[in-house]
């Protein structure tokens, strides 16, 4: 039997001696047995600014509608295949940590108008058509995309960083390193 969000919250409250509904930072990482569903109990986390559900067996992003203050969502090392379900945090979410999942398509990401940090290494994004959806994120500054088939192919071909910096004009950091654009380098010289 998987652990429900309600059970995981109860365990968290017991361990932390505080109410999850009043906490700004709730970590439900690596629960055993793992969490499989983001169920309606998440809506009780009304004060939460940072929610971590990493290292579980979650397949779908869901039930974030009560989290009106959510700024950082960590869902790394799960079984997530797409980004639907983020619409309800589109106005507040600043960081999405979703590395080591099974995401191939980026549909649904464009609602995250305040997103500054996207860590989505080791997923399954294969083509520029999907990647180009990231250009609709007006505040994106920091992207971790290493370990996706698209990145692996273009790193091998030697044009990954150049291609990305041309496509994502607001980006300041790519795969852990500062983005230096040719026009900026010329202006400094």
Index terms:
eight-stranded mixed β-sheet; single chain; alpha/beta; 189 residues; 5 helices
Give an account of the 3D structure:
The chain is α/β, with parallel strands linked by helices and 189 residues long. The chain is 21% helix and 12% strand. It contains five helices and eight strands. The chain has helices spanning 5-16, 128-131, 149-157, 160-167, 182-188, and strands at 25-27, 50-52, 72-74, 95-97, 117-119, 142-144, 173-174, 177-178. An eight-stranded mixed β-sheet has the order 1-2-3-4-5-6-7-8, with no helix packed on it. Helix 2 (128-131) links the parallel strand 5 (117-119) and strand 6 (142-144). The longest helix has 12 residues, at 5-16. It is elongated. It starts with a helix and ends with a helix. The relative contact order is 0.10. The mean pLDDT is 95.
Give me the side-by-side strand order of the main sheet: 1-2-3-4-5-6-7-8
State the order of secondary-structure elements, H for helix, E for strand: HEEEEEHEHHEEH
What oligomeric state best describes the polypeptide chains here?
Answer: single chain
The portion of residues assigned to helices is 10-25%
Distance between the termini: 62 Å
* Percent of residues in beta strands: 5-15%
From the helix content, strand content and strand pairing, which structural class follows? alpha/beta
- Largest β sheet strand count, sense and barrel closure: 8 strands, mixed
Outline type: elongated
